[in-house]
Amino acid sequence: MSCREGPMSPQTETKAGVGFKPGV
Question: Which stretches does the entry tag as region Disordered (predicted)?
């Protein structure tokens, strides 16, 4: 996961970003 998830925090994108990518 990259940091371009935007509103997602580094800790949030680690668990939540696995299921969905807001930055895509």
Answer: 1-24
The pLDDT assigned to 6 comes to 59
Prediction pTM value: 0.12
Give the 3-state secondary structure of the chain.
CCHHHCCCCCCHHHHCCCCCCCCC
What is the C-alpha radius of gyration for the chain, rounded to an integer number of angstroms?
7
At position 10, the amino acid (one-letter code) is P
Q: Residues 15-24: what's their mean pLDDT?
A: 57
HSE (CB half, 13 Å, CA atoms) of 8? 20
